[in-house]
């Protein structure tokens, strides 16, 4: 099955059709064997950073790094920016995993879980005073919720000292994130970027780099100060995923500014939510009842495990891949990506499938 078959998995997910041509171009241009200390690589890397800033609306004074995954970012942030502990606000499997990984390295790290239908209550939030890093998952891929911009701003205002770190793995490049309102943002590219797995983008505010320099942790190949020093010349501490950086560059070149993508994605999200709410049988319902916290990029639909299994099987027979549920919702939900690489026409096919079978 080609990757362009109807694939609504929220990561790894459908890649842009153009990736096929870009792969050939990379081969023909001799990109696959270039040295990562060469001028050619530096040019691609520099260009990609500039494109990320331009297309995603990342402030000019923020720093951009290439890592291999969001999971690696969890580790980098804990190693290099947390002296004592981080504090995590989570409502799903990815946010919780982040805390678990942080604890392996900084055992004093803690957090609080909040309800999937609730917004984070910033005003009443109790955060230990000596926290180095405050961690949130902007888009919780496991249950299809999101933390919206005003909440992030409130956190930033109420807790001015710790760095605010945001996992935006399944929303960056899909929605217009306000980078200025937090210190650290990261995402791997196999979700909203519409690219193959094996690369992630880490975005840091100037004060993040200032802290990293103060702490000056240099024990690992991916220590943030060392990454920073190499990135001054658009290089990495190790041989990076040059092919994927090249693909990222090519995809970004053809993408509109994020403002436009955001408009399309949020509009399509509202249409999909309305569709499932109004037109589909009551045996299948939206997992998240509160419209205010529903994700724009990942939808979760709930049903009896037997029905969920049947829906996925029936869809597969029509060449439609739905995302499995994840974590606590593995059996009683399926997920649908609303990512920019998936054309509108494919959502019409998806809706027709549901209208025909589950209306
Ligand atoms: C997919 C995902 C991750 C993990 O990404 P990797 O690239 O596999 O490390 C982390 N956080 C969120 C919110 C995700 O959706």
Automatic annotation (TrEMBL):
Family matches, as SUPFAM superfamilies? PLP-dependent transferases (SSF53383)
Phylogenetic lineage = Bacteria, Pseudomonadati, Bacteroidota, Cytophagia, Cytophagales
Q: Which GO terms describe its biological process?
A: glycine biosynthetic process, by transamination of glyoxylate
Q: Which GO terms describe its molecular function?
A: alanine-glyoxylate transaminase activity; L-serine-pyruvate transaminase activity
Recorded hits in Gene3D superfamilies, A to Z, give: Aspartate Aminotransferase, domain 1 (3.90.1150.10), Type I PLP-dependent aspartate aminotransferase-like (Major domain) (3.40.640.10)
Q: Does the keyword Transferase apply?
A: yes
Name of the protein described by the UniProt record: Alanine--glyoxylate aminotransferase family protein
| Aminotransferase class V domain residues | 12-322
Superkingdom classification of source: Bacteria
Would the keyword Transferase be found if you checked this record's keyword annotation? yes
Which coenzymes or cofactors are required? pyridoxal 5'-phosphate
Q: Which keywords has UniProt assigned to this entry?
A: Aminotransferase, Pyridoxal phosphate, Transferase
* Species assigned in the record: Adhaeribacter swui
């Amino acid at each position: 099955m080609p990757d362009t078959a109807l694939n609504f998995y929220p990561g790894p997910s459908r890649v842009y059709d153009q990736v096929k041509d870009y792969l050939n171009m990379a081969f023909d241009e001799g990109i696959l064997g270039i040295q990562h200390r060469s001028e050619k690589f530096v040019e691609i890397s520099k260009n990609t950073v500039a494109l990320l800033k331009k297309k995603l609306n990342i402030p000019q004074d923020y720093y951009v790094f290439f890592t291999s995954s969001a999971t690696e970012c969890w580790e980098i942030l804990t190693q290099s920016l947390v002296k004592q502990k981080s504090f995590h606000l989570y409502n799903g499997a990815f946010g919780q995993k982040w805390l678990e990984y942080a604890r392996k390295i900084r055992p004093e790290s803690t957090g609080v879980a909040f309800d999937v239908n609730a917004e984070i209550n910033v005003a009443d939030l109790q955060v230990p005073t000596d926290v180095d890093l405050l961690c949130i998952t902007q888009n919780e891929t496991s249950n299809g919720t999101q933390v919206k911009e005003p909440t992030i701003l409130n956190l930033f205002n109420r807790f001015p000292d710790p760095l605010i770190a945001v996992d935006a793995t399944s929303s960056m490049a899909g929605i217009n994130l306000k980078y200025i309102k937090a210190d650290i943002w990261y995402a791997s590219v196999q979700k909203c970027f519409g690219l193959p797995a094996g690369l992630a983008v880490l975005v840091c505010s100037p004060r993040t780099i200032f802290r990293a320099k103060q702490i000056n942790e240099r024990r690992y190949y991916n220590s943030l100060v060392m990454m920073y020093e190499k990135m001054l010349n658009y290089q990495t501490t190790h041989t990076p995923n040059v092919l994927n950086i090249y693909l990222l560059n090519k995809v970004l070149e053809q993408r509109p500014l994020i403002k436009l993508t955001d408009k399309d994605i949020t509009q399509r999200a509202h249409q999909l939510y309305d569709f499932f709410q109004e037109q589909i049988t009551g045996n299948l319902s939206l997992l998240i009842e509160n419209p205010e916290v529903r994700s724009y990029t990942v939808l979760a639909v709930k049903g009896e495990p037997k029905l969920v299994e049947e829906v996925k099987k029936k869809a597969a027979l029509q060449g439609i891949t739905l995302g499995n549920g994840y974590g606590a919702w593995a059996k009683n939900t399926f997920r649908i990506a609303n990512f920019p690489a998936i054309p509108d026409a494919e959502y019409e096919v998806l809706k027709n499938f549901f209208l025909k079978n589950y209306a």
